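Memo subject: From amino acid sequence to discrete backbone structure tokens
Action wanted: Derive the backbone structure tokens from the amino acid sequence.
How to read it: Take the token row as a discrete description of the fold.
Attached in line: The record itself begins immediately under this heading.
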Amino acid sequence: MNTNLDIKPDIKISVNQYFGIDTDMLVDGFSKKNEHVPEIDKDYKFDRDTTLSILSGFAFNKRVLIQGYHGTGKSTHIEQVAARLNWPCIRVNLDSHISRIDLIGKDAIKIKDNKQVTEFKEGMLPWSIQNPVALVFDEYDAGRPDVMFVIQRILESDGNFTLLDKNKVLKQNKYFRLFATTNTIGLGDTSGLYPGTQQINQGQMDRWNIVATLNYLDFDKELEIILAKNKNLNTTKGKEKVSNMIKVASLTRKGFIAGDISSVMSPRTVIHWAENSEIFKDTGYAFRVTFLNKCDDLEKTIIAEYYQRCFGEDLPESTINIKI
């Protein structure tokens, strides 16, 4: 990791101009970007409430937790806000393989002056809190208990971090920011949709200053996004096809929430479906290779029925003469 981040915000950014939200709010940002700043997606569409929550996190050093079903674009939302602020942003996925050592650091053997020595190598957490970085924990409700207690120590905006391995107390950088995304709201998974998620200590939940909920996009906004990514489909016939694609996706989301199927089409999946339909010149085949082939065999009949209901035709067989 590059540790030469001795920088601070030096410009004010108009929320109205950069995010299209009707407000006079100004947010600190950086005039220059570095290697840790995400790339801007010019076609990205911001959800007003979620964007304001994230911006409040950046502007007022608030800890922001975003909850919602997978595929709603929670992490991407944070990244795209950071991209427009030129704010360095690092994502860490808290799956079951991430341990306390991964976050804090560990002893490593090095050769120094032709001698073998042991030095402590800081992990992602000590590095992040000492720099003007937005640290994003994905799948926050899937973190191991030992990892969650480590994170709890930095949830206070002025909380110092004691690095016992080096007998050192680390002070948070003034422009360090902390975000997290989660499928559940810290009470565990009562629906059965997200196995592997954990209940989050309520003392820790209380330390999150802002909790935002991001749901799936409404029809018109999703249509706008997909057409922006697939400009060749921005015709009367193309809009009709994409509209039917979104209707299929909506049925998978309802089926997923109801527990009928275990796979769901995110807006990202619909974008890929639209792109693949242009590559293969066949909407049904593109649906198979984009989504259906990822699904449980026992659920494919239900999902094929979703396709039939929206397109008014049975899903074609999987063989095709590809024309590229």
